Structures are given as C-alpha cells and as structure tokens.
Amino acid sequence: MKKHLLVIATFFLSGIIYGQVNLKSIIRGEKGVSNHYTAVPANQNVRFTAASARTIFGLDANADLILTKTEPDKLGYIHYRYFQTYKGIPVENSMYIAHTRNGLLRGMTGRIIVDFDPEMDKRNTARLSASQAEETAIRSVGAQVYAWKDAGMEQNIKMQTGNKYASYMPKARLVWYSPGFGLDSRALRLAYKIDVYAIKPLSRADYFVDAITGKIIGKEDKIYFTDATGTAGTYWSGTQTIHSDFTGTNYQLRDYTKGNGVITLHGESGSYGTDYSSATANWTLSGFNVAALDAHYGVGQTYAFYMAKFGRNSYDNAGTALYSYVNDPTYIDNAYWDGSAMHFCKRSTNEGGGVTGIDVTGHELTHGVTQATCGLVYSYESGAMNESLSDIMGKSVQFWSKPTDINWQLSNDMNWIIRDISNPNLLGQPDTYKGTYWYTGFGDNGGVHYNSGVGNFMFYLLVNGGTGTNDIGNAYTVGALGLEKADQIIYRSQSVYLVSTSQYIDWRTACVNAASDLYGATSNEVDQVKNAFYAVGLGSSSTGCDYPVGLAASNITKSGATISWSAVSGVSSYNLQWKLSTATTWNTVSNIAATSYNLTGLSPAFAYDVEIESNCSGGTTSGYSSPITFTTLTAGGYCISYGQSTDYEFIQRVAVGTTGYTSGNNGGYGNFVSFSGPVKAGRSYVLQLTPGFVSSIFSENWTVYADFNRDGDYADAGENLGSVISTSAAAVNLPFTVPATATNARTGLRVQMSYSVTQTDPCAIFTYGEVEDYSIRISGGTGLATMTDITQNKGNSLTILPNPLKGTMATVGMELAAQGKVTLKVSDLSGRLLVLQEENNGTKGKNTFILKGTERLNSGVFMVVAEQNGKIVGRAQLLVN
C-alpha cells in the first residue's frame, strides 16, 4: 500500500500536465493571430508530442497543424515545425515552431490564426478552376520566354530534382491567403497559388489568384538578387583547392564530397546546363569561363562552412545538390538565387571573374538556407532581414575561408563595394531602425537592400563591439563577442526562432532567446545581444529593462480611468505619462509601485493618450511604450461605444429622407451630435444607412438607438430602433416610429455598424466597424422636456466674434468682476464637451481671448460657457457654418 501511495505522490509532485491542456489564451495576440513568441509559464510543465499540437494550442475545429520538420539540436532541444490548415487547405505564410526539452513544451514561435473570422464559410468554395487561375497568372506576367518552354531549363530541373517528371510548368493549388503582409484572420481569402518562372525577362514569383473573383490579390518574389552596380577591377581568391569529378575521360566541376554534390554548369544561352571540362584535376580556364572556378570554390566553401559551424548538410539540411549556373546572360552586375539554384552573371567591366566573389556566393546560398528554415517573406522588414542574413553569412564564409581577408565591405574581393556592414550610412543605408536613410517606399520590394543595413550593423557590433550614439539619441556601448559566438547566435535565431513574417523587433527576441539557449539567460552574451540591438534602435540595453506590455484603460468614467499594464521582471516601479490627445505636453506620474494607476480629474468626452515606462536598476529607464488612447464618458451621461478597427469598413453616410451627413472613416467613432434632424412624435421614418469599405465589401450589421425619453441613456423600452444587415456598398433602410410619448427636445441618436455580429448593447466596444452619434429634434410629443434650452442671459457679458463662425478664428470678449483664471468650455447641445481651454491671466474688467480648437467643430450650434472659481460667469451660443 505504501508503495502505491508513493507512486501517486511522485506523479503529482512532478508537476507535469498529462491531461488535456489548452494554451490558446496565452498564445493569442492581436486581431486573431498568435503572438510571435510565447514562453510557457514556469508553473505549466506541459508534456508535448508532435500529434498533440492542435489540442494543446486550442485551435478551431476546422483548423490543424501539419508537421513539416522535427529538428533536434546540440543543446538537447527538439523543435517541431508546423504550417496551419483550415478545412484541409494550407494557410499561406503560417509557421509555428514548438520548442521542447525532455519532452516538455518550453516555448512557441511563429504566427498562426488563433481566432478565425466567423464568415470564413462564406468564402470557402472556389468559383474559378485551377486552369483559369494559371492562365490569369501567366497572362499577368506577359513574358517572352518561360522556363517550362525552354528545353534546357526543363532538362535541368529534372536533373536537379532527380525526378524525370519534374517541370517548371505552373500548377495551381488552393491556399488561404492574406493580401498584403503577414496573417490577418479577417483578410484570409481562398486563392490559387501559382509559381510562374519567366526567363525573358527574368522573374519568378508565386502569384495568388482569388478563387472566387479571379483577381490577382498577391505576389511573392522567389528570386533573391545581389542587387548592386558599380565599376572596379576584379580581385579573385587566388589558387585554391577544389574538388571535381572524373568521368573516365575528363574532369567536371562536380564535387560529390559535399552532400549530393556542388555542381557548377554553364549559364550561357547556347550552352546552358552543360558541364565545364578539364583534361586534368588542376583546372585552368580562360576568358569568362574562369568565373566558374570562383563560383565552384565559393559555393563549396559555403557548404563546408555551414557543415563545420552548424552541422548543416546543404541549404535544406537534407544534402540537396547545389547547382550553380555561371555567366548567366539575364543580367549584368548581378547574381541571384531562384528558389532552387544559383545564377552568377558577368560584370559590366568584362572582367573574367564575373559576380562570383566568395562573400557573394555565400550570400546567395544563404538565401536558400533562409528559404528552408524561417522562410522570411522577401518584402519590407522581413525581406530586409532576409538580405541581412545573407550579407552576414556571406561575410562569415569569407572570414572563415580567408582569415587574412577581414574586410566588412560586401564584394571587396572584386574591388566593387555593394554595401558596408561596418558603416551602412556610407552607402546610403540606415544603421538605426527607422533612422537616417530608412527606406519607406514601395520600390526594391519595400527597401530590402536598403533597410538590411540595420541588421548588418547590429551584427558588426556584436562581433567587434563599439560605442556611439544612434539616430534616435541613444548612447550605446557594445562588448565584442567575436565572430564564432555571433555566428552561432544569428544562425540559431534563423533556424529556430524566426518565421516567415518576423519583423526586426522579433529578431531581437529571437537572438536573445538563442543566446540564452547557448550561453545562459544571465550570460554576457545575452547582455551584448541586447546592447547590439539597442545600438540600432531596437529594445532596451542590458543595463536597462524592457517597457511594459499590455497597456490598457478600463473603468472609464466622465472624469477618470484605470490604467493597467503587465509586470516586467526585475522592475519595481514605473512612470506613467498622460495628456489630452490634442495636446503636446505630457503630464508625468513617477515611481508607481503597482501595475495599475487610477487617473482622475479628467474632463468628460475627451480623448486622452497614455504611455508607460519601466524604472530599471542603476537609475536608467526603458523608454516609453507606444501610447494608447481612450475617451472619457460624456457629461450628458451617454456611454462610450466604438469600433476598434476601421481597417476594412466604416460608416459612410446616415440620412433620413434627403437630409443626412456623409462622414467617411472616423477611425471607429464619429461625434456628429451637432447635426440634427427634425422628427415628430407618432410618425414613422426611414433611416438610410450606407457603409464604406477600404477595399473588399463585407456584410455589415447595423443597430440604431434613440433616447426618446431624454434620460441620458439608450436602455429604455423602445429605444433600440432595430437592426438590419447590408451586403453591398449600397444603402440599407431601417424604418422606425417616434413614440407619441417622446420628450419634446433635442436628443441623442446612436448608429452602430459592426462586422459579422449584430450588436444589442448601446455601450458595446467591438473589434471591426464604427459608431456615430447624431441628434434628432422631437416635437409633438407628450413627454416633458428635462433640459432647459440655454439662451444668452440678460446681462451676460460674454460675446463671440464672428458669430456665425465661417473660418477657424474666433474671439471671446467678456467682462470679469475679479482677476483670476478663466475656463472656457465649448459643448454641443447634447452636453458633450468638445473644447476645454484655460486662461490664467484674466483681469478685472474687459478681457479678450482667442478661442482655440474651433477647427475641430463641425457645422452646427454649440454652447460656449465661461467659468471662474467654479461659477459660470458668462455663456453664449456659437453657430458654426
């Protein structure tokens, strides 16, 4: 009996969770997508198997995770790499990696859809055939020659893959695709993915054709260029040892000592795909053919570098043969990876070696490694990181192969400088995230060859150390780790923690995690990784700390709100800043010991910004987080309701008959109570509600409320006027009747438009859509007015000029009985405060003040009130045309 009890006790004390686990709540990020990196809480020792992923992460019943690789590493971790499907169809650009050790889940990296859009079923049936999609994609390219129509290209793909049926002929397959960048549960569309490879002019990309509309909704390039021009003489690698293959009669540039081969072939049009040959193993080639020896040597050294440093067998770690085509005539002064092979072109100087410097060969093959590991999308930040990884490893291959040739300028061996890793600014690249030279345009796939300078300079500092002040004013000091450790950290970040949609800030997290795995969480290596990223404007330094995340506002009232945030490990106090959204000066609350703070003394119906920072050890701070915005409740008592995102839809127009207002996109909420329409009690009317869309059209759910008894809310019987659904960009009608018992006065009218879900709460805050507030003027009702119309009192000294106001400049004139501060308030006729202005220098007698903030007023009637010492000393109506 004691033995059985001991077994049971051991089972529970181990703390291992063997039963059903659902980590959905901790992996959920913004807009239905997982956080990029999530650590499993220390108190949850979750037993993990490859088949348990879907259940553990709490995925939708129609979703699944498909295992693509199981990757053990030398630190004892096993990494399970997945892509996601929905109803059996792959979700493009999804990638999720489960990091385990000793069978327990330690963390997750990547992005998958956690909460699918509720209207997915309305777009899961293709109306277009695969062949129609293929025709659409090919027609959009409009090339003169395609790879599948070139006999040499077709023969070579069969040779490269060892598959006699292999072809470059496009084959459409269904995927779920988010137009734009990354993953977005709302934007997922059923699409055909078609790989189109053209050779004249050269291009290769995956095209995404909407399976319902037939339109091309996306394109992802698959050719990665060196992308540089310049003039200089060529400097070669000198005499080197290479391996070649003896056929029995001659030697060919085929090295079968490395994986399934390093194979170097002719790239010229007339001899494309044929072997170079030599009568002896001691190769001598003349003219442009000599470039083949540089390419063969460089690719062979790159293979050897990855094997020696990381135990990686070819770009895909499966020994796949490495094909190079030399003297490709497609481009001059370029080299590129096409998704399965390397192409090296000639120089414009006609130098025999072409574009085959050893750091260039290392660069191109690393594109293959990136493709096979994290698959960074080749555009914008992820594309810049893709380029940076290739620059970094290209130089590392050079320094490993030729330790006396330490030069941080890319392609220095050819005396043709493409980029400078040690000083990116020298050639017009940024060395600070979003600093000087940061590229923000659409060219160069969103600046992939420009913005790679940030990652390059980070690596240079990680290897060599350095001090300085970056473009955003941060003084930094980075200690040198040397090339060996820096390479290991970068490679582990690439192969373990990055995914296809990672951004620069994600790379920082990936490198910190990699350094922690390799050298310990409290190691100097982790500190220097933080310092290197801090130097280029990303995150905090090792002597600082991170700013809090999870900043939120709750318990919002007319005069205050509770601000809360997540605790930062090792931080004991925080600084909070707040201000009116329209103000330029922040108010600061310092040394808050808790992770929440109650803001008080705010004004009703105003938008406020709040940001937070950590107080780190040693007297430093983390720097402030990005601000959040919240709006206090109105003085009239109406609750706040708004949509959190108008990225897809918004309220375009609200009208009754021919009277209405076209508002456009107001970011989730629009206050138009100064627009008022007359209605009579006991009569029926029709509201015309028109949605607006950013691009695609969606189904929208409308609900309208009216405060008929004018008690400051929309909660009474009959005040929900009803709901209606629109399915196009045209207006929909919502009929309503004004009760005979309605109060005779101006009162509130609220319009909610919500994607997919019909709202029934007038105070709802929802994800997608918009809310607008208007007024109606009721007459003929039996209810008594509860709010006296404000008129200009006899003897009131306050005057406004000009009135009506047609521009944005108004002056307030008034006579004060005493000296002191004067507060001017501008409200609409529902009591919503729109402008709050304090004048500290009021004098006894006549005063003139410039009324500020009138540019924020729409056309309508407003009340201007002056207060001194808590008492109203003047008021007047202001008409704005």
TrEMBL record:
It holds the Pfam family Peptidase_M4_C. The lineage of its organism: Bacteria, Pseudomonadati, Bacteroidota, Chitinophagia, Chitinophagales. Residues 547-635 form the Fibronectin type-III domain. Gene3D superfamilies: 3.10.170.10, 3.10.450.490, Immunoglobulins (2.60.40.10), Neutral Protease Domain 2 (1.10.390.10). It comes from the Bacteria. SUPFAM superfamilies: Fibronectin type III, Metalloproteases ('zincins'), catalytic domain. Keywords: Hydrolase, Metal-binding, Metalloprotease, Protease, Signal, Zinc. CDD domains: FN3 (cd00063), M4_TLP (cd09597). GO terms for molecular function: metal ion binding; metalloendopeptidase activity. One of its GO terms (biological process) is proteolysis. InterPro entries: FN3_dom, FN3_sf, FTP_domain, GEVED, Ig-like_fold, Peptidase_M4, Peptidase_M4/M1_CTD_sf, Peptidase_M4_C_domain. This is T9SS type A sorting domain-containing protein. The active site is at residues 364, 449. Belongs to the peptidase M4 family.
